[in-house]
Amino acid sequence: MKPAKKQHYVNNQDFLAAIIEYKQKVNIAKEKGLPKPRVNNYIGGCFLKIATHLSYRPNFINYMYKDDMVCDGIENCIQYIDNFDPEKSKNPFAYFTQIVYYAFLRRIAKEKKQLEIKDKILEKSGYEHVFSVDGDVDTGYNQIKSRVEMNSKR
Predict the structure, then answer these.
(1) How far is 104 from 86, CA to CA, in rounded Å?
(2) What is the pLDDT of residues 27-77, one digit of tens each?
(3) Structural domain boundaries of the chain?
(4) Residue 22: which of 4, 46, 1, 6 has the closest Cα?
(5) pTM above 0.90, yes or no
């Protein structure tokens, strides 16, 4: 017996048809001088599914700001939907997956930069101002101080 065909979470043909229909509405609105129409729920749902499922990949799973990554991915998909050309490619799933992937990488770089800035501020302001050194708090202070010093040596 043949194994059941794996069901994909985004149907590429339906997704392509929805994008073509959306682009037609955009062109009609542009001709009539109307504002650009909103992306419909199906296309938005596809963007959400692509971003959410990509966030489950092993290289993205353990980040604390995964929700921000997903939101950035969706935002970029909506921002660049007009750049997708159905004449050149019949695979919108791959196109928007790449957009989400690079949005994730940009968010990770941005968060890493913020963490470095935070560490430098802690280092320059002196740890004593941030943490009181009394009793058991002293061990936490020393742990954070050694972590910041270790990061600054990299």
Answers:
(1) 25
(2) 999 999 999 999 999 999 999 999 999 999 999 988 899 999 999 999 999
(3) 12-112
(4) 46
(5) no
- Please count the residues of the chain: 154
How far apart CA 113 and CA 91 sit, in angstroms, is 34
Asked if residue 20 lies in contact with residue 28, where contact means CB atoms within 8 angstroms, the answer is no
Helix crossing, 92-125 with 66-79: angle to 10°?
130
The one-letter amino acid at 49 = K
